[in-house]
């Protein structure tokens, strides 16, 4: 499979991060192989892969949690401040939300009035201002996740790295996290977002890379990937609405009581179906172009279906 670099630059033509030929072993096991990519400043960059693909390892290398690897990670902005949201929630449950934030703030060198101000700002940002004096052990999973993100942004980072931040949380907190990410983008932060939820990547990321068994199999702008690999497909459902030539074609597959038809000329197939229906008094319940999905592209490149 072909690998091509993301060479597009950020809004002002600046790259936030350059990773060059990253390789990583755990013992004898190679878990990252020749990984190279660039992230434009201000982009939201999705890392997509199955469990065990190597996303967390790569993220830990970028966040300087892992040092034992070969290759080079270069932050092109000398003033880059990294905020790392780990996959595992790392909070002190016996302390309040406010105290957890203060703890992380002090680690980043904040003190006094500035620390107080930032703690209150972050509590507002993560939607926990009302619960600031409550102990974390009384929080739901989603609230803990939001506070975990808060701890990572207390020092106002401009590169925020999030490792599967929506796994196992309620839909309301998930929605809240997306709203926060939209705000990070407006604040011109660069974001690295690892997930195996494709619809999340499509929704929030401008750029994405597919990782499979420690290798980048493809990367680039999400729109470009969708255009490059999408196979035009239509969906039709109804009574007596499909001409025999389409019904028996190898490009036609049954789905949910209707048919998925792949074609290089989907509009021509739609016309055929409409004309056939007119002639044969068939009835169309649904006839639509199917929007290409990253999930299908991932499947076609790796042969693996992403699972929950
Ligand atoms: N500390 C470690 N020691 C040995 N092997 C490890 C260690 N951490 C991860 N691995 C192995 O490295 C590979 C990549 O793991 P990694 O956690 O980076 O994948 P991932 O894509 O983040 O998956 P997940 O979503 O399950 O966390 C896996 O085979 C994993 O078992």
UniProtKB/TrEMBL annotation:
Q: What does the UniProt keyword field contain?
A: ATP-binding, Nucleotide-binding, Transport
Record keyword Transport present: yes
Q: Which residues form a coiled coil?
A: none
Annotated GO molecular function terms are: ATP binding; ATP hydrolysis activity
What Pfam families does UniProt report for this protein, alphabetically?
ABC_tran, DrrA1-3_C
**ABC transporter domain mapped to chain residues:** 17-238
Look up the domain of life of the source. Bacteria
Q: What is this protein called?
A: ABC-2 type transport system ATP-binding protein
């Amino acid at each position: 499979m072909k690998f091509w670099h993301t060479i597009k630059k950020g809004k002002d033509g600046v790259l936030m991060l350059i990773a060059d030929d990253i390789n990583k072993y755990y013992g004898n096991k190679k878990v990252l192989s020749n990984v190279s990519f660039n992230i434009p400043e201000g982009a939201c960059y999705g890392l997509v892969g199955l469990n065990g693909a190597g996303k967390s390892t790569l993220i830990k290398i970028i966040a300087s949690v892992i040092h034992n690897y070969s290759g080079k990670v270069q932050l092109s902005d000398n003033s880059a401040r990294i905020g790392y949201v780990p996959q595992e929630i790392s909070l002190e449950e016996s302390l309040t939300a406010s105290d957890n934030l203060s703890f992380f703030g002090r680690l980043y060198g904040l003190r006094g009035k500035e620390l107080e101000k930032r703690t209150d700002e972050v509590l507002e940002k993560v939607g926990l201002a009302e619960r600031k004096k409550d102990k974390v052990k009384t929080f739901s999973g989603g609230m803990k996740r939001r506070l975990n993100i808060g701890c990572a942004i207390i020092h106002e980072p401009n590169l925020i790295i999030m490792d599967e931040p929506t796994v196992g949380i309620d839909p309301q907190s998930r929605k809240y996290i997306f709203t926060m990410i939209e705000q990070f983008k407006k604040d011109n932060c660069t974001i690295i977002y690892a997930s195996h939820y494709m619809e999340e990547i499509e929704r929030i990321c401008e750029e994405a890379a597919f990782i499979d068994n420690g290798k980048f199999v493809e990367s680039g702008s999400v729109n470009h990937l969708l255009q490059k690999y999408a196979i035009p497909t239509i969906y039709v459902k109804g009574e007596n609405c499909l001409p025999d030539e389409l019904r028996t074609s190898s490009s036609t597959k049954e789905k949910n009581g209707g048919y998925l038809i792949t074609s290089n000329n989907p509009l021509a197939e739609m016309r055929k179906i409409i004309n056939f229906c007119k002639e044969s008094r068939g009835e169309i319940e649904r006839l639509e172009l199917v929007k290409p999905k990253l999930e299908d592209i991932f499947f076609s490149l790796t042969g693996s279906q992403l699972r929950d």
